[in-house]
From TrEMBL, chain A:
The keyword Transport belongs to this UniProt entry's keyword annotation: yes
Organism classification: Bacteria, Fusobacteriati, Fusobacteriota, Fusobacteriia, Fusobacteriales
Classification via InterPro entries: DctQ, TRAP_DctQ
Protein name, per record: Tripartite ATP-independent periplasmic transporter DctQ component
Protein's organism: Ilyobacter polytropus (strain ATCC 51220 / DSM 2926 / LMG 16218 / CuHBu1)
Gene Ontology annotations for the cellular component aspect, listed alphabetically: plasma membrane
UniProtKB/TrEMBL annotation, chain C:
Main location: membrane
Pfam families associated with the record: DctM
Source species: Ilyobacter polytropus (strain ATCC 51220 / DSM 2926 / LMG 16218 / CuHBu1)
Protein name: TRAP dicarboxylate transporter, DctM subunit
PANTHER family the UniProt entry points to: SIALIC ACID TRAP TRANSPORTER PERMEASE PROTEIN SIAT-RELATED, TRAP TRANSPORTER LARGE PERMEASE PROTEIN
Matches recorded under NCBIfam families: dctM (TIGR00786)
Residue intervals passing through the bilayer: 12-41, 61-86, 106-130, 175-199, 220-239, 245-263, 275-300, 320-353, 365-386, 406-427
GO cellular component: plasma membrane
UniProt keyword annotations, A-Z: Cell inner membrane, Cell membrane, Membrane, Plasmid, Transmembrane, Transmembrane helix
Membrane topology: Multi-pass membrane protein
Length: 168, 311, 435
């Protein structure tokens, strides 16, 4: 499981880095074609917008793997260690339920419906863009399961926690 | 009559609308809702959610498809994504004027087209006018050459961009919320829209010449969720059909009144409305028209049917 | 019971519980929204609508500016731009008592002005200037408090990611106009902090001993000019119509990258790390924005904002009291919530009320962001406070006492911003961005 996680991490990193570069190039190019050549492009704006949505969804999945999403910890930290770990595991379970219901189930239904609809400027099915919701959802669930495993078997069993970040 | 809406049987129809309460379509829809409630003896009530509160038009269409809401008013290009043939009723220069367009909407010539998207989860009940779209910028536009090098904002669609390119300008897709500042600062030279939106967005302040190129009369479509429609009794379906027809009529009247009011405001604020000979522009966009007409047999039939209704 | 009240109750009881047990803010918002959505919709409808909102909430060209400003900020942080700005601001602040602290304030304003992030400013500037202050005998609680109190100016002085978020929830509010509107309140904030810092420094007798020659000064200025040019390029480009605010952010990335490569402080092999770090920060913020759009949708669907505003207006119809109540609520919210989710949740509720009283949405945007800026430096949840303590190597308790006078002065400026519309809308009017 750890090995798969590391591979997935690397893949998402590569994907997100490429998207960041591509977006910067596309938007700069858009200014260039319009301002210098007076030939605005119909697709750069829409395309960079869709790439951005992908970046956010896959990037967010990666961050779930790192347990690095913003949270309020000042109450949880006051709890005894045992309950703190329990709260952490509950979090991961809630993340799994949310993702399973909304991103995987709802996202998949939505994606299927949008396969028949074409984007006006890119001429690709909008469902293709939407597909990032259920796919990144599956990644998030995988990460959440990894986290539960680690929280329970490693942190809880060892019962000694290193320094947790105050603001994560 | 008593307060029937409290009866448990009453079905609430939520309608998503992306314009404000002052829009002529809102006024027409409001009257429609009242009449529907009355004529179905309170079986149906209508709640309009204006200002795109439930999402933009594409989102609203999805909500109707999924039965989350029951109705929406959306622009023709949104439905075009489900069936390409809809492009015909939004073609440049396909209608001669508002009277012609009204004739087409009321005649029943579009019934087959409207029925064609049933499989996607919604019915098209009818079409509203959104007037004619015209180019506005910092000078009168009387011939295609006047647009040379002029970046004109269009909706985010490839067809719209090509259309302005054919007309002699540079079609530039951009989100509407950015347009005012973009024109003012010279990212764009102007936009294209109807008089009502031109005035609503105060674009007369930044682009005071409104030239009647009349290039587009894109309909807005009233859509309803499939199951909501199918569950209606035959009697109520007839009521609905008649009311929609009546509402379309009223909307055309309300539209004309609003255009006059809008023009008055714009003129008071220094805008100039320029009459233009549309012939050269019409010639220029022919290839675009032809490519849509040639795209399918249905398109051709539809095009001929619409042109036949012209006087 | 009214369906809206029920839905609202589910939302407003489940949300704080989830937040307090430490569930990520995004999931807390999403979970409680989905629960309340299930009150009014069947399962499939609720799930599909939620997924759709998640997509639509992130699918906006204006939001695209955020990854670019984050990336530009990270490049500046690493690329030697921050230190050049600090050197330059030392020239401006050095005649005042506590000169190094004054330089810290000016540098935070400059750095924040181009990076759009208060946290980045607190880390980059505070981290660089803290050792210098220690060497001159400044107490760490003093220097850290000044760094923390001045860092939020970057969220008001353009560009500002928080203002971009506001403009997308507020509807058709021009980002360019908001950006220009942030200048005066942001600078007022900075000046307020400078005055308090000067009074404190005088009391503790921090007088500068450093002397520089004219030639050195000129060199410092020349050295900082390419970095300062970024402000001219981005804001000038937006005002001159070369590009929109969103496009300007991408241009900022390209410019910072070129500059850092010229300075040779960033090598090409460092880039993947910087890019990934920016991608992560972007995802955290924007995912939260996407999920929050579920919440605003449920509220619109069940007419909750109208109910709240009726409730609020039922208390009084006095404009001044209502505005004070709103400010108080937002200050409280700001203590435990980050600016982005707070803007997302409270704009749809408060903006209609404020507009009802004839407040311009530009002014309201500045007011709400100003409020939440104060929140970023208050415990228990204050990202700038935490960052400042971290780089200053000091505990929150020790800094907090020193921060009290800064809270007072910024709250006073907030009242000015609330009751004098001209402070926010005079500049955009002057530039013709609004009527
Ligand atoms: Na800034
Ligand atoms: Na706080």
């Amino acid at each position: 499981m750890n090995k798969i996680k590391l591979i997935l991490d690397k893949l998402i990193q590569l994907f997100c880095i490429s998207l960041m570069v591509l977006m910067t190039v596309l938007v700069s190019w858009q200014v260039f074609t319009r301002y210098i050549f007076n030939k605005p492009s119909a697709m750069t704006e829409q395309l960079s917008q869709y790439l951005f949505v992908w970046l956010v969804l896959y990037g967010a999945a990666y961050v779930f793997g790192q347990r690095d999403h913003m949270k309020i910890v000042f109450v949880k930290e006051k709890l005894p260690f045992k309950f703190e770990i329990m709260a952490d595991i509950i979090q991961e379970i809630l993340i799994t339920i949310f993702t399973l219901g909304i991103m995987v189930y709802g996202g998949q239904l939505s994606t299927m419906k949008q396969m028949g609809q074409l984007d006006a400027s890119l001429q690709i099915p909008i469902g293709v863009v939407y597909s990032a919701i259920p796919i990144s959802g599956i990644f998030i669930i995988f990460y959440a399961l990894c986290n539960i495993r680690e929280l329970y078997f490693i942190k809880y069993k060892k019962s000694k926690l290193g320094e947790d970040k105050l603001w994560t | 009559s008593g307060k029937k809406s409290d009866e448990p049987k009453s079905k609430l129809l939520k309608l998503a609308f992306n314009q404000s309460e002052n829009h002529p379509q809102y006024k027409a829809l409001k009257e429609f809702g009242e009449a529907l409630e009355k004529e179905t003896n309170g079986e149906y009530t209508l709640e309009i959610s204006p200002n795109a509160l439930l999402g933009d038009q594409r989102a609203a269409t999805e909500l109707v498809q999924n039965g989350v809401i029951q109705m929406a008013v959306v622009a023709n290009p949104v439905v075009e994504n489900f069936n390409k043939d809809f492009a015909v009723i939004g073609l440049p220069y396909i209608y001669d004027n508002l009277e012609h367009q009204k004739e087409v909407f009321i005649s029943g010539a579009l019934d087959d087209l409207f029925g064609s998207v049933k499989g996607s989860g919604f019915e098209v009940l009818g079409a509203f006018t959104a007037g004619s779209r015209n180019i506005y910028t910092n000078k009168p536009v009387e011939k295609p050459a006047d647009l040379s090098g002029y970046k004109i904002r269009v909706m985010q669609s490839d067809t719209m961009k090509k259309m302005v390119d054919y007309m002699g300008g540079v079609g530039t897709p951009m989100a509407q919320s950015e347009v005012y500042t973009a024109v003012q600062q010279g990212v764009l030279e102007g936009g294209e829209n109807n008089e009502v939106t031109y005035v609503d967005l105060k674009h007369y302040e930044i682009a005071p010449y409104f030239s009647y190129t009349n290039h587009l009369m894109v309909p807005d479509l009233i859509i309803m969720n499939n199951s909501t429609y199918d569950e209606m009794s035959d009697e109520n379906k007839v009521i609905l059909k008649n009311l929609i027809k009546e509402t379309i009529n009223k909307e055309f009247i309300a539209w004309n009144e609003n255009v006059e009011a809008a023009k008055k405001i714009a003129k008071e604020n220094g805008a100039t409305f320029v009459d233009v000979s549309i012939k050269p522009f019409q010639e220029r966009v022919k290839p675009l028209q032809q490519s849509v007409i040639d795209s399918s047999e249905n398109s051709k039939i539809l095009y001929d049917a619409i042109r036949d209704l012209s006087k | 019971m009214d369906l809206a009240v029920q839905t609202g109750m589910i939302m407003f009881t489940s949300l704080p519980i989830l937040l307090l047990i430490g569930v990520p803010i995004s999931i807390s918002i999403g979970f409680s929204s989905a629960l309340s959505m299930l009150m009014v919709l069947p399962l499939d409808g609720a799930m599909v609508t939620s997924a759709q909102r998640l997509f639509i909430g992130t699918n906006s060209f204006s939001l695209l500016a955020i990854p670019f400003f984050i990336l530009a900020g990270n490049i500046m942080n690493r690329g030697g731009i921050a230190i050049r700005l600090i050197n330059c601001s030392k020239l401006i602040g050095r005649r005042l008592p506590g000169s190094l602290a004054q330089s810290n304030i000016v540098a935070n304003m400059l750095f924040g002005a181009i990076s759009g992030s208060g946290v980045a400013a607190a880390a980059a500037v505070g981290g660089t200037i803290a050792p210098l202050q220690e060497a001159e005998g400044y107490k760490p609680e003093f220097s850290s408090a000044v760094n923390i109190a001045s860092a939020p100016t970057g969220m008001l002085i353009p560009p500002s990611n928080t203002l971009i978020v506001y403009s997308t929830v507020a509807g058709s509010v021009s980002i360019s106009a908001l950006f220009i509107a942030g200048y005066i309140p942001g600078i007022l904030w900075g000046l307020g902090v400078m005055v308090i810092a000067a009074i404190m420094a005088k009391k503790e007798n921090y007088i500068s001993t450093e002397k520089t020659t004219l030639a050195q000064n000129i060199r410092t200025i020349l050295d900082a000019i390419p970095s300062l040019l970024l402000i001219v390029i981005v804001i000038g480009g937006i005002l001159k119509g070369v590009f929109t605010a969103t496009e300007g952010s991408a241009i900022a990335v390209v410019y910072c990258l070129m500059l850092s490569l010229i300075y040779k402080e960033i090598k090409l092999k460092d880039l993947p790390k910087i890019l990934m770090c920016s991608a992560e920060m972007t995802s955290i913020v924007i995912f939260m924005i996407g999920v929050s759009s579920m919440m605003s949708w449920v509220m619109a669907f069940t007419n909750i904002p109208q109910k709240i505003s009726i409730l609020l207006l039922g208390i009084t119809d006095n404009r001044i009291i209502i505005l004070l109540i709103m400010n108080l609520l937002m200050l409280i919210i700001g203590t435990f919530m980050d600016p982005t989710p707070a803007v997302l949740i409270f704009t749809p509720i408060f903006l209609p009320i404020a507009e009802n009283f004839g407040m311009n949405p530009i002014q309201f945007g500045i007011m709400i962001v100003f409020n939440l800026c104060i929140g970023t430096i208050t415990p228990p949840v204050g990202p700038i406070l935490f960052t400042g303590c971290k780089v200053g190597g000091i505990s929150i308790e020790r800094v907090f006492k020193r921060l009290l006078p800064f809270y007072v002065v910024t709250t006073l400026i907030l009242l000015l911003v609330t009751f004098f519309p001209a402070l926010s809308i005079a500049l955009p009017k002057m530039f013709g961005l609004i009527k």
